[in-house]
Amino acid sequence: MAKQLMDLQLDEEFELYVLLKEAKKRVAKNGKNFISLVFQDSSGQLPGKYWDASAADIQQFVSGRVVLLKGKRENYMNSPQIRIMAMRLAKNDEPHDPLAFIKRAPMTRNQMEDIINQTIFEITNATYNRIVRALIAKHADAFFTYPAAKSNHHDFAGGLAFHTISILRLAHSIVNQYQDIDAPLLYAGTILHDLGKTIELSGPVATEYTLAGNLLGHLSIMDAEIVEAADKLGISRDSQDLILLRHMILAHHGLLEYGSPERPQILEAEILHHLDELDATIMMIQSALKNVAPGDYTDRIFGLDNRRFYKPKPPVPTQKPSQSQLF
Amino acid sequence: MAKQLMDLQLDEEFELYVLLKEAKKRVAKNGKNFISLVFQDSSGQLPGKYWDASAADIQQFVSGRVVLLKGKRENYMNSPQIRIMAMRLAKNDEPHDPLAFIKRAPMTRNQMEDIINQTIFEITNATYNRIVRALIAKHADAFFTYPAAKSNHHDFAGGLAFHTISILRLAHSIVNQYQDIDAPLLYAGTILHDLGKTIELSGPVATEYTLAGNLLGHLSIMDAEIVEAADKLGISRDSQDLILLRHMILAHHGLLEYGSPERPQILEAEILHHLDELDATIMMIQSALKNVAPGDYTDRIFGLDNRRFYKPKPPVPTQKPSQSQLF
Amino acid sequence: MAKQLMDLQLDEEFELYVLLKEAKKRVAKNGKNFISLVFQDSSGQLPGKYWDASAADIQQFVSGRVVLLKGKRENYMNSPQIRIMAMRLAKNDEPHDPLAFIKRAPMTRNQMEDIINQTIFEITNATYNRIVRALIAKHADAFFTYPAAKSNHHDFAGGLAFHTISILRLAHSIVNQYQDIDAPLLYAGTILHDLGKTIELSGPVATEYTLAGNLLGHLSIMDAEIVEAADKLGISRDSQDLILLRHMILAHHGLLEYGSPERPQILEAEILHHLDELDATIMMIQSALKNVAPGDYTDRIFGLDNRRFYKPKPPVPTQKPSQSQLF
Amino acid sequence: MAKQLMDLQLDEEFELYVLLKEAKKRVAKNGKNFISLVFQDSSGQLPGKYWDASAADIQQFVSGRVVLLKGKRENYMNSPQIRIMAMRLAKNDEPHDPLAFIKRAPMTRNQMEDIINQTIFEITNATYNRIVRALIAKHADAFFTYPAAKSNHHDFAGGLAFHTISILRLAHSIVNQYQDIDAPLLYAGTILHDLGKTIELSGPVATEYTLAGNLLGHLSIMDAEIVEAADKLGISRDSQDLILLRHMILAHHGLLEYGSPERPQILEAEILHHLDELDATIMMIQSALKNVAPGDYTDRIFGLDNRRFYKPKPPVPTQKPSQSQLF
Amino acid sequence: MAKQLMDLQLDEEFELYVLLKEAKKRVAKNGKNFISLVFQDSSGQLPGKYWDASAADIQQFVSGRVVLLKGKRENYMNSPQIRIMAMRLAKNDEPHDPLAFIKRAPMTRNQMEDIINQTIFEITNATYNRIVRALIAKHADAFFTYPAAKSNHHDFAGGLAFHTISILRLAHSIVNQYQDIDAPLLYAGTILHDLGKTIELSGPVATEYTLAGNLLGHLSIMDAEIVEAADKLGISRDSQDLILLRHMILAHHGLLEYGSPERPQILEAEILHHLDELDATIMMIQSALKNVAPGDYTDRIFGLDNRRFYKPKPPVPTQKPSQSQLF
Amino acid sequence: MAKQLMDLQLDEEFELYVLLKEAKKRVAKNGKNFISLVFQDSSGQLPGKYWDASAADIQQFVSGRVVLLKGKRENYMNSPQIRIMAMRLAKNDEPHDPLAFIKRAPMTRNQMEDIINQTIFEITNATYNRIVRALIAKHADAFFTYPAAKSNHHDFAGGLAFHTISILRLAHSIVNQYQDIDAPLLYAGTILHDLGKTIELSGPVATEYTLAGNLLGHLSIMDAEIVEAADKLGISRDSQDLILLRHMILAHHGLLEYGSPERPQILEAEILHHLDELDATIMMIQSALKNVAPGDYTDRIFGLDNRRFYKPKPPVPTQKPSQSQLF
């Protein structure tokens, strides 16, 4: 595999195609403009400063563009950074697709589509089935490429679909273990619960909140999408099915303080809330533990009330446990 | 004016047309059915028990029906109640419209329609204007007859429109006093902010929450209505106007804990939240003070953190204040 | 199956063996003693009053005893109750085991023992394995017969083991779905997490909190049990394994406010907390829904922030959903 | 109009009279003293450092003094600052009144005095009238020149009176719209509610909290002032009027958490609390929006729970709204 | 000692002088007036109903009067009550002082005066000394006879002074143990901290909150009293001593949520807050424990977050502990 | 007394034995390693940087070692720091005991041992006495040398014992003042309440939390220690004495939010909680006030909700207070 940003050693010089994840115009102490940059490829990201930026530079080097970067990996204030030696936009016959430079879900789009397909077959209630089909079809491209969040958990390309699928797997376990769960409702609610993020967020690259995202939030966005889909499919606004499905989406944050306008009032909505939280929590902790040596603690995790988590040392080999039966 | 429920003296016998506000089947100590009733006219309400109820009685004497009641006002456990001597449903040529027996807003529907009309003329932004027209036209009957809440504040027929108009008057004061307020947005948001209650609540008589009311809430209900209206009017889902108007409705409870999925993020939404709270607060306090003698305290008001309010005694006449100018 | 308490009709006379679930001495208006009783069999419970109780009656009719009850099912204040016609303690050759009269887990003790056995084989870490074996062996009788709580969730005989096994099933799903979970630690922590309830609670019949339960709580009780077991097994107090296992128990309530002296700081402790909450929540909601007709709401559930849950009506048969593949 | 601080371009040299808003002695890396300064005129403020400060410099260049400053506007770390070339105190025949260099309310003192005068005439209750007259007369100079807060809202000269007058205007709207409001009490409470800030704060220039401000707060300060005024005017400590007026001041923060020792328990106190909050909120949002381009968000506003507010883009001209009457 | 209310047996007839602690007019089922009474002497209290009350009865049998009561102790709904056989007001030559019929502090007024006297000698700061003298002299009668609260803690005659003295004793321990405590300030603040209750409460008998108590609270009441005393004594409003003493009173509830407009900001105020809470807590727990048998729990104590407290059983005699020295 | 770190003047050169309180490897801008150090002696601490650190330097200059430091006191960014000129480890015949370089409690170990000895004699209950003896004997060295906390209060060598003794003195005052306090239980609980910190913290020098400290906390640590001691002493797990003593430790943080798994449910536990808080609070405020000039405020104190405390100016001499007796 070709060398990537995270492979560079201190003082190593290099020439690489990288994505501009962030690009902000600043004014230097000498009064001239420079661009504060964050370079990214699928291995990770590093900052750098483009000094004495001309108006043309500022116009072309914007976030979301791929560049050919010639530089040197240095250290500043104990943190690694790039000294830029030369930089130009990638040409059309060079690698220039931003999506190729960002972290991706551990499943391919095809794999994820198959799972969604399969699950839709299990949604045997016609109302739920038709609405899910309509909305997934409408937002498919974004659904399979967007992250699940700007930061925090599943913040990689395809993270939205991957997080959804992860909850679906948990939901199947629940349906197998407990009786009297309305599986079609649970699956339909799961598939749609975060689909509004395709409108709340700006895209898989250089992700920001949109105006609708900030002022409406993905719950209300998706709620209105469901109603519109139902209208088009001739499903009555008063149908219990429609109200239950809308409730699944509106209530999935569990608490009013977390932005749900209603708390869960049906069993399946309560379950979806728990599974959503559980999957996001595991993902956040496991991401944080990856950067930590055994015996150490992670940094404080914002999304988990600023708790730190401990990574245990490998267990000392001990005597084999008894194989006798207890009862 | 004819005698009403609240005019009856202890032990007075009477014959009156009254509304059955509540009617619940119960089983008596002797194992027979009875109906626990609440009678209502526009003067107030009184309870009573219909003993030895037959199946036919139970079927006809349901909440929302008007009856001709022959009875006697007695006392039980220190509270007034009705001893039922005879009771039958009102006939079609007798007073039988339930709406005639409930408390009403202090303005007529015509007066309120005029004010809404006038305000719509002041909504000079075409997007807001068209959506408000469409939705008020669609829900007009309910808007002008429903209460603003099942209990708490403005819980009388026409209360929803009256509360809306009361906020509109405050909003006009604000627009006059402060610069740079987007008046059309503030007025449009005000008119629509509680309109979802026409779907959240069951009606002006024997008001209950509907399934949609419980599981979705009036904020999300109206949000979806606005989107549907915009679709029909050909207004783009991404138009800033539409997003701002939706935000006015979604944010008007002010805090996530109060059921708004987003807190106000534009000036007009913050103002609407304050005016809504102010009008509801004044109405709750003034209703409570009506039942209290000067020098006493109201009962604890649930909607105001269980505070009691004091009704001052009339001021003692004192010397006339100075008429000289201070500065 | 023989007739039980819940099968009785209004005014039906009967003679049944039943358990005294509660028995409280009271003084009547006439100054004489009576006993306020709650009768129970596995179908449910009903109250009754034993009037003019002699000193001997008061001494023998105490909670936890089985009696032969001759009575009549009546109604008082709209609630069913028993009029006692005659009552005596059950003899040794009659049904007199209190455990036979209380609700039971939907699995037999043998079935539950098998699952625990199997899981212990999967606990391949010797420290965890040995401690779990020692403590389950020590508390086996109570573990398989106690409820999981005095009220709220899994409040039936065998509920403690059943709840534990239910979480173990969820834990297996998690281990299958996610990488890098320490399965032995998760299983060991799950088996022990509520085992302290065998000391916190008084037993399967007429369950009360013990003094240790009130003043120490089942978390600290089990923590000290684990340390004692480790001492006896020669496991060092400073071993990381021991500290992690103790942390699983101490942190499983998740929040300080819920009685955990530490919040989860390892991944497996966080997962155990979520699964515990999830299983208890599903159980509480499903119990409540059992008593409710479709289209109605449950009573407010204390353990779920006083929320009510809706039981949907059966779906209206609709057109068959599409069988075409979406992607 | 003469050039001011905010008019200076990068690298522009200038000579201006400015106020020293802050002046703090510091020790430089080389061990010598310097003075860290903030310069201010009514256009805004800029920082600068006075190096190698002698003892005499430190004594004369203190906050609150006006200086003639010769300097150059530079940039440091992306923020503008002043390089000081020469600096001396303003002489008596030069501009040297600090008040001339700070931002001011948008009304003159005369205009504000007139409004207060007028309102006092409307306070027809003699107790309120006499106390208000006495206290406004006593604190007039401070009342019309102090800011309403050290920072947050109305933090400009005359802000205290301007904020008071703004609430008075809202209060008049309320009195016009609702019945049974005790207007004299509402107006008197409004005028006095923040008057304690004349003792809580140090003055209009270089505003700090006084010892009394920190340890007593402006509510208790004003409460004691009212009692003292009443004593001097021969008004009984037990008079209901006096208790109600004191309650208006003590309760106007609305919640105990906000420093009110009692929550509002009369209608007029509740209204005053709402109007105070409403006016301060509008002022904070509008100040923040001034520094923001359409389509952008303000910085997070500390006094509003760290919310950001959106400044909408100008509406796109659309078709004219319908002029037809709806009802 | 003469027989008292708490000495009466079931069905015992008696004739006793007792205090009417409460007397409320009610309407009976038959429409006639009765008076709902609570009788009290220093042993405790019992309820009773005075049927068929005439207008004259209602006028004379009001709370705070002593009566000669002829009655019988009965039981109603499992609670003891008095059947009234005859009742008349006590005459002037009979026991008729209400104070003789209520529970009293365990010290005499003389004893308590001596301690206050002594402490005032220790207040060597002239400002504190003079203000304390003035205010204690002004409110002496109420200070030594009022309870410290309407209910909760020290709710007996003389409780206010007794609670104050109890804190003074703790304060002396603190002054002895820690260095750099301003003892005169701590003692002065302690003596005055609750003195405002002499105005907040209506008196030692049938204690209610006054209007000033409800709308101002005892903190603000005493704050204004201190300022007035300082004015009369010629102590400047700006004196640090005065500000510190006022702060002691205003801050002694410790938290804004408990009604202090400022949190403690000097060491002595923080200490006073802790000692006040400690003494009240001990008193509440010990009162509750008095009514409880060893091995039982108290009822839930409202003032202590509804906690129940356990009364341990007497310890089992064990072997004598070692008398050897550890170090 | 010899010169110490806090005695150094700006630019003064020196040679001193000092402790390395902190030593962290860092990478400089030039890519080379340096060590970021904090030097400490009993007068205080100062930072410094050891540039161009070799692998050998990094290995030997670790936290907890004593070094002979030749350096110069300089200023950087307005804060004092050490420029290191030469540095080597102290030899065995030079001062090299880290404990000699840290702040110490104001009592000697002997004095503190005497007080603990004495108090143990007062613990007349054999259960408490034997457990306290066993645990204090086991942990004596750590108990008399550890701080009471990593930072916040009593963060000096011997602070743990000193804080314990300070609470014991308060406890004696309480026992003298109030009746019915179980003194042996209160003293035993006090001695053990923080003893778990000997395992929670790493030691008196360069104090950190241990793994057990982070994952279990000192409450659960000591609870298990008590149970183990009781096991060894043959005291039954069900003995009321043991349960009460464990409750004292588990409940002493008072609130669940502060890490107590149970709130106090016996009088002595409630008292211990209050005294613990009171002593820690006084210590924190007095430490902070030491660094502050009269008339100034302390920095915000983290452990006291970020409050600042005011240090009053010396009182102005005033007229002598009256010596007359008030009553």
UniProtKB/TrEMBL annotation, chains A, B, C, D, E, F:
- The identity of this protein, by name, is 3'-5' exoribonuclease YhaM
Indicate the segments forming the HD domain, all copies. Answer: 160-281
Q: Which residues cross the membrane?
A: none
- Matching PANTHER family: 3'-5' EXORIBONUCLEASE YHAM
Sorted keywords for this record are:
Hydrolase
Note the InterPro entries from the entry. Answer: HD/PDEase_dom (IPR003607), HD_domain (IPR006674), YhaM_exoribonuc/phosphodiest (IPR050798)
Q: Identify the Pfam families for this entry.
A: HD
Top-rank taxon of the source lineage equals: Bacteria
